[in-house]
Structures are given as C-alpha cells and as structure tokens.
Amino acid sequence: MPEQPSRPDPIAQARENWTAAGWGDVASGMVTVTSVMRAHQILLAKVESALRPWELSFSRFELLRLLAFSRRGSLPITRASNRLQVHVTSVTHAIRRLEEAGLVRRLPHPTDGRTTLVEITPIGRSTVEEATVALNDEVFATIGMTTKQSEQLVDSINALRRSVGDI
Question: Which residues of the chain have pLDDT under 50?
C-alpha cells in the first residue's frame, strides 16, 4: 500500500508567507507562538475529552485537585487563586459551578471573618480521584513525545516564563 502523502503544515506555510511579506526577521517568533497555541488546542481537546464523563473543565479539575492535595481539603479562595495563577473571579466562577455539582462548599474561615474557604466534599474527592486516573491514562501517559522531548519543551517554556517574571 503506498504511503499517504503528509498534509502541508499550515504553520510552515505561514512562515513562508511571513518571510515573503518581508517579516522574515520575526518569522521564528511567529512560528513559535503559533505552534504553542496549536499545541494548546490539541492538548486541551484531549483533556476535555478525558474529563467529559465528570462534566469537568480543566480549570475546575485543577481546583479540585489543588483542594485534594491540600492538608485540610480546604483553602482560602485567594490562596487557591494564587496557586492556580488565575484571577479570583475565575476561581469564584469555578467554585460556583463545583458547588452546584456538590463537589465543593464554601465555609467561613475559623479565625479570619474576612476570608472564605473553599472545601472539597467527599463526592468531590472521589470525583477528582477518578478524573485523575483518566487524565493520567488518556493524556499524561501519552502526550505524543518522548520524555526527553517533553523535558526540553518544559525547559524552553520555563525560559519564556522566566523572561516575563512568571517564575
């Protein structure tokens, strides 16, 4: 059976167009950004597929996983926001959706009346454990690159993060 010709790479074509338009000096940057954005789309689709049985988005999964990892199963909302590196409004929206599903609850802080805690419920804990197994099996175990390639990619991304003061 003859080998199927590979499809043209739209990002490689974009590089050619960028260069032809006179922007060759920044074509590598455009290709890098576009490639990372496409990789994000691919990985997000895999994550969303794995989490679909629990009706979880990745952001809600991350919040549940963070709470499950915490010593008491609860955190102040602002601390959760900081650890997830997202705005408090985004965390509050995720909490509202998780509350509706019975996976978390809000509690007053025992010693600071100005602070609200978010706490994982028993059903939230079992849900996140099941969802974690699915993510490990369906996404994290087979991301489409070797361990060495994965580590090199993380190193490259960390260089970008350091350059903007993210880490």
Answer: none
